[in-house]
Amino acid sequence: MFENIILGIVQGIFEWLPVSSEGIIVLVEKNFFNKEAGLEEIIRYALFLHLGTFFAVLVYFYKDILDLIKTFFNFKTSNCENREILKFLIITSLISGFFGFILIKIFAEMESQLNVSTKIITLIIGLLLLITGILQIRAKKIENREVKRIKNGDSILLGFVQAFAALPGLSRSGLTVSILLLRKFNSAFALKLSFLMSLPIVLGGNIILNFNNFIFSWELLLGLFFSFIFGLLTIKLLLKTAEKINFGWFVLLFGFFVFASVLF
């Protein structure tokens, strides 16, 4: 029960940072709770905890989501911006869902064949965190302008980028926000779009990967509850902070700490 509470809190806080909450959960499971489960099983549980922050996003962005639902049923009569956002979300979700599922299967198969140790998994996650940090710093150096019209090229690119976030260590929010900034989107709009992108992929991922394997338990629901509560409590503060501070350096530092935890 204590493990579920801790992991729920971790998911609720780290989901909004440009650090992979999934990667942090894998590290905590492997290093602090000595979890013997395979990497794919841990990723499945991490994806389940994402439902907590999924509901937190629903609550925080409920007006935007209601507008998008209305746009879905009245596409031709809706305003241009909502139509473009809805089309963007559909394309990115289809691409990232398909390729993300393949990446998870490949990564899990490699683990079983190579008998990857906890230290090797930790080193891989540290490397992926460094990549995320470099992308964040690079994105922050570019002067951004607001771009309301989203092109199909943006949708396809972001779909592939979000797919790579299926690997533990690559931050979904960190990667997608970085690429959106590199594409010269306004920073506030990039953050909003990134979090809206998480909704269909988290819901769809849980239906595909966890629906048939779900076993009801109060421990699982407890982790989900704490993920939702801490996600809701921290989303406003962390989103505002993310607009003012370059978290790329924080991610790089965290990646180095991950490497140090293996070497010392």
Helix-strand pattern? HHHHHHHHHHH
The biggest beta sheet, please? Answer: none
- The number of helical runs is 11
Number of strands: 0
Low-confidence regions: none
Rg for CA atoms: 18 Å
Number of domain modules: 1
Give me the secondary-structure category: mainly alpha
Helicity range of the residues? over 70%
3D shape: globular
Strand fraction equals under 5%
Task: Give the rounded overall mean pLDDT.
Answer: 79
How far is the first residue's CA from the last residue's CA? 30 Å
Folded structure, characterized:
The protein has 264 residues and is an all-alpha fold. The protein has one domain. The chain is built from 11 helices and no strands. The chain has helices at 2-14, 21-31, 39-60, 62-73, 80-114, 118-140, 152-164, 172-182, 187-209, 218-244, 248-263. Helix 1 crosses helix 3, helix 2 (21-31) runs antiparallel to helix 6 (118-140) and helix 6 (118-140) runs parallel beside helix 8. The protein is globular, with a radius of gyration of 18 Å. The two termini are 30 Å apart. The model has no long low-confidence stretch (mean pLDDT 79).
Note the topology.
Elements: H1 2-14, H2 21-31, H3 39-60, H4 62-73, H5 80-114, H6 118-140, H7 152-164, H8 172-182, H9 187-209, H10 218-244, H11 248-263
Helix pairs in contact: 1-2, 1-3, 1-10, 2-3, 2-6, 3-9, 3-10, 4-5, 5-7, 5-9, 6-8, 6-11, 7-8, 8-9
